[in-house]
Amino acid sequence: xxxxxxxxxxxxxxxxxxxxxxxxxxxxxxxxPRLPTFxxxxxxxxxxxxxRIWAFAHLEKNQTMVTTGPYAHTRNPAYLGTFCxxxxxxxxxxxxxxxxxxxxxxFGLFMALVFFTFYLPRKFSREYPRLKGLFGxxxxxxxxxxxxxxxxxxxxxxxxxxxxxxxxxxxxxxWGWGLVMVLILTAIWTAPMWSPFYRS
Length: 200
Fold this sequence. Notes:
Blueprint: H1 15-29, H2 35-56, H3 77-93, H4 99-135, H5 137-145, H6 166-171, H7 175-189, H8 191-194
Helix pairs in contact: 2-3, 2-7, 3-4, 3-7
């Protein structure tokens, strides 16, 4: 479960965070958007944000084994939302009709590969032993019924009555994530006006 994706995680700079920031800046600098794919990318980012809101509306980090809401479909809904946002931003920033746009999409595919090859395995290897220590058999039962990442269509019914709570969304400080997405998408669409690398 993606408890470590909680927004209050350490703010200390790491090489991974620096790599994420630099990759985002590089993608923005070379953005070459086209309206159809930009709109599809925006829709995917909106879906990603809603998925994260849904997740954090059920999450109480390290306090309760959450099996409701999106956690009944996937054990890592916030990470799934982050991945959808990565694809959405990459799709919005590139296009198929120019070499620059194709390069942006290729870079997005590279980032997706890094996400699955390095980021997720490292997160899972660190989180699961800690969570097993906290929740024991509850975690094992959840893992036996709910996929690790890609969601199952029908929710697993654990019997937990927990419901969606906007208060938890606020307590988990998720609102800023959506603002960041809006700023990134705005920067992509306006790249022709500010990016020195834009080619008409």
